[in-house]
Write a structure and sequence with these properties.
The chain has about 140 residues and is mainly alpha-helical. The protein folds into two domains: about 35 residues, no CATH class; about 80 residues, 434 Repressor (Amino-terminal Domain) (Orthogonal Bundle). The chain has seven helices and two strands, in the order ββααααααα. A two-stranded antiparallel ribbon has the order 1-2. α1 runs antiparallel to α2. The longest helix has 26 residues. The chain is elongated, with a radius of gyration of 21 Å.
Length: about 140
C-alpha cells in the first residue's frame, strides 16, 4: 500500500491514530499514521460483542454452580487456561481443575493470591462474580 492509500476513515480509534506501514515514493517502507478503516471497525465491533456474549455465558454458568469464578475472571481478562497458568506459575492441569467450583472453593490463600495477581484483581473479587451483567458502554 502506498502512503496515499493508507485509510483515514473515522472509526473505532475514537480520534486516535495508529501506525501503519506504507511505501513512500522511493519504494521504502515508512510508518504512516492512520485513523482507521471502516471494515476494520466492523470486525473489531463484532469481536468485542462476541467477547461480551462469552463473558455473560460464563458469568451465568458460575452463578448456576457449573464453573468457578476463576473462569469468569480469566474470560474477563481475555486469557485462556494456558496463559493463565503461565502467568500464575501453575501447571495447566491444575488451572483446569480449579475451574470446578468444588475444587476452587478449597484453594489455599497462597494459590488464590497467585491467581489474583495474575488477573490483577483482589482475592475478594476473584472469588465472586457480578450478580447482574456489567453495563455496556453505549455505541454512538
Amino acid at each position: 500500500m502506498k502512503i496515499t492509500d493508507v485509510p483515514q476513515d473515522i472509526t473505532y480509534y475514537e480520534g486516535e491514530k495508529r501506525a501503519c506501514y506504507a511505501l513512500d515514493e522511493k519504494g521504502n517502507y515508512v510508518v504512516v499514521p492512520s485513523a482507521g478503516w471502516a471494515a476494520e471497525e466492523v470486525v473489531n465491533r463484532l469481536a468485542v460483542e462476541e467477547l461480551a456474549v462469552r463473558l455473560e455465558e460464563t458469568r451465568k454458568a458460575v452463578l448456576a454452580g457449573l464453573k468457578s469464578p476463576l473462569c469468569y475472571h480469566m474470560e474477563r481478562r481475555q486469557m485462556n487456561p494456558d496463559i493463565l497458568g503461565k502467568t500464575a506459575g501453575l501447571a495447566l492441569f491444575r488451572v483446569k481443575r480449579h475451574f470446578r467450583p468444588d475444587i476452587f472453593a478449597k484453594l489455599k490463600p497462597s494459590v488464590l493470591n497467585r491467581y489474583a495477581q495474575a488477573l490483577a484483581v483482589s482475592i475478594d473479587e476473584l472469588t465472586t462474580v457480578p450478580k447482574q451483567p456489567p453495563e455496556r458502554e453505549s455505541q454512538p
